[in-house]
Amino acid sequence: MSLTVAEAIDWIHSRLPFGSRPGLERVSALLEKINHPELKVPTIHIAGTNGKGSTVTYLRCMLEELGLSIGTFTSPYIETFNERIAINGVGISDEAIIELVSRYQPIVAEMDQEEAIAGITEFETLTGMAFDYFLQEKVDVAIIEVGLGGLLDSTNVVHPLLTGITTIGLDHMEILGETLAEIAAQKAGIIKAGIPVVTGNIESIPLAVIEAEAAEKKASIYRFDQEYQVDYLHPDEEWGEAFNFSNEAGKIPKLRVSMIGQHQSENAGMAIELFYQYCRLTKQNFQSKFVTKGLWQAQWPGRMERLSENPLIILDGAHNEHAVKRLVDNLQREFGSYQIKILFSAVATKEIHGMLALLKQLPNVEIYLTTFNYPRSLELKDYTNEVDEQLTIVSLWQFGLAEILENFEDNQLLLVTGSLYFISQVRELLLELGGADEKA
Question: Which among 210, 220, 341, 275 has a CA at the least distance from the CA of 55?
Fold first, then answer.
């Protein structure tokens, strides 16, 4: 009896209880059993605390301008499960998911009988499926986003053409380390011998760790504000941000991205440098028109996404303190005259007190703290001491959202932020209510 796609996805999710267990033993065993597709697919490997998703999207869109077939493996998903494994922005088909799961179920069942490799996780299973699918579909290159850390992440089985590290911030400290240097060492674990690495806007101490690893591996390094430069200009008059880019190939002036926030110009700049290095390695023709068009085409739901103009609704998956700091900076610079209503929730493992403290720094802010349907979502009882004139607790996010929208005024902005899993649930309801505008 054949599976339905819901049953197939449920089986993938059933591996979630095995949790996050860093190490390559299980995924390597799986890849051995499916004839190592990861060795047959050209890849670009991207790590970093924040900015991975938008950097991957910018890079994909520029590579598509070369007429290439581009696979992407990302997480989590915002709209549909299928988008985690995609080609040229189109998620894997339901039929392909069913075929892969049907093939993998007996393999995983066999692995579960061997103590050393039993209990393969959801993410490790998906990693194998992504490489398998990209090989079947003969993509020209696959951009692979690290799930957690880098050194021991299951995606670190790749032998990439290029690697990239976007940012370093304090996140997943219980696994990656308590300092920026320790976390940087985990991220730098994706650097391979002789393989070029591009870095984003990273502070000096963690950058020094990455530079040392690159030197030891004899990997050329291309750094933000050194080998390439991003000159932020201003919010774009129509939508998004404007900036100049320059590197050894010259200067590309007045570029635009449709995503909001100064950090998006930095993510785009890193993607341009990766694109340039890819073109150099593969002897492709690097042209500014590919950069200009590719960047403007890039969309990444849930990352400073302006879902609606009237009412003004912005969604941003700022899921750790590093991301919230950037979010607060962007809001103060671009929406300083607005009264800001924030609907916020996160998973319990995050530094939620610190994130709330940063959000409270905003003038004219009112925060609705809530929870959502997810196994590790925060417990509201743990945050009653946060309640003050700026923060209210609402037991159901749907009630908080309704209250904000019912009393919305012209000079207000609704920001939905925190966990990307939370963002995806709110986004789905807002779209059902017809609350999104199309970008011009």
Answer: 275
Q: From CA 290, how far away is CA 140, in angstroms rounded? A: 17
The strand ranges marked E within 11-127 are: 43-47, 70-73, 85-87, 90-91
What is the C-alpha to C-alpha distance for residues 416 and 181, in angstroms, rounded to an integer? 31
- Strand-strand pairing, 43-47 and 365-369: unpaired
Looking at CATH, the fold of the domain delimited by 305-432 is given as Protein-Tyrosine Phosphatase; Chain A (3.90.190)
Contact 112, 70 (CB under 8 A): no
CB atoms within 10 A of CB 142: 28
Is pLDDT at 436 greater than 60 in this prediction?
no
Decide whether 5-297 matches 305-432 in CATH topology: no
H or E, element range at 339: strand 339-345
Calculate the alpha carbon distances from 27 to 95, 129, 152, 358 in Å.
23, 11, 11, 38
Domain range annotation of the chain: 5-297, 305-432
Structure token pair of residue 408: 């919305």
Q: Which CATH superfamily is domain 5-297 in?
A: Mur-like, catalytic domain (3.40.1190.10)
| pLDDT above 70 for 41 | yes
The neighbouring-strand residues paired with 87 are 71, 90
Tokens of 78: 């915002």
- Other C-beta atoms within 10 Å of 19: how many? 10
Record the tokens describing residue 124, joined without a space: 């490790």
**Measured distance CA(16)–CA(42) in Å, rounded:** 28
Query: For tokens 């993510």, what's the residue?
Result: 267
Beta bridge partners of 416: 315, 343
Quote the CA–CA distance of 264 and 259 in Å, as a whole number.
6
DSSP bridge partners of 232: 243
* Beta carbons of 226 and 291 less than 8 angstroms apart: no
Place of tokens 């440098």: 273
Nearest alpha-carbon partner for 427 in 326, 293, 315? 315
Coil/strand/helix, residue 219: coil
Q: Compute CA distances 214 → 94, 189, 203, 368, whole Å.
A: 40, 10, 16, 44
Interatomic CA distance for residues 287 and 260, integer angstroms = 25
**The tokens 């579960």 sit on which residue?**
112
- Measuring CA to CA, which residue among 52, 71, 16 is closest to residue 190? 52
Per-residue pLDDT tens digits for 157-193: 999 999 999 999 887 767 788 899 999 999 999 999 9
**What tokens were used for 240?**
């998004």
Q: What is the mean pLDDT of the chain?
A: 92
